[in-house]
Amino acid sequence: MSATTPARRGRPPVVDRDAVAREAIDLWSTQGFAATTWDQISERTGVSVRTLIRRFGSQPAILARPIEAATDRLRAALRAAPADADPSDVVHTAVVASVSEDDAVRAGGLPWVRVVAAEPQLQAWLRTAYAPWITELAASIRARVPDIDDDTAYALACGFEAVANAAMQAWARAGGTDSPAAHVGAAVHRFRIG
């Protein structure tokens, strides 16, 4: 800011992240991710381009909210597990718990999963976006399995994230009418730690 530019006053604009995400997903679903501009998202949401860029930084980051919530659910399930519980059971339960069964989330989750699955750029972004989820799971695996090193725990956590993501995509391809958590549960229960 230059010396002649007056300081901005008042509260920063409030941005409804969920509403922006719904509108962006709708645009990406109809015209593709690469063809969608910030101007189009701004026009659809009524939020200025400047505010959108300041709030999200990138178009893929608009999709981060469900991943943040999934990480919170995963963390809560891991912390709630008894210390002496079987590590595989703890991981399976936590990974499944990270998938929301809330009807509103499920309704929004289907187009979210479909858009991410259809766009290579969003698939690449997904690995970065899920880093906190993976780190949380890896730390729990490492803490519960004494003979596993950090790299192995991290690799296992990455594997569970990949399996959960693939199961969510299978859920979306099947129409998304049943439980996404059941799809994830059926997939992750095939893997054991130890």
Radius of gyration: 19 Å
Q: Approximately what portion of the residues adopt beta-strand conformation?
A: under 5%
The end-to-end span amounts to 56 Å
Mean pLDDT: 90
Largest sheet: none
Looking at CATH, the homologous superfamily of the largest domain is Tetracycline Repressor, domain 2
**What is the general shape?**
elongated
| Annotated CATH topology of the largest domain | Tetracycline Repressor, domain 2
What is the count of distinct domains? 2
Spans with pLDDT under 50 lasting ≥5 residues? Answer: 1-7
Category by helix and strand content: mainly alpha
CATH architecture of the largest domain: Orthogonal Bundle
CATH class of the largest domain: Mainly Alpha
Number of strands: 0
Helix content: 55-70%
Q: What's the helix count?
A: 10
**What string gives the helices and strands in order?**
HHHHHHHHHH
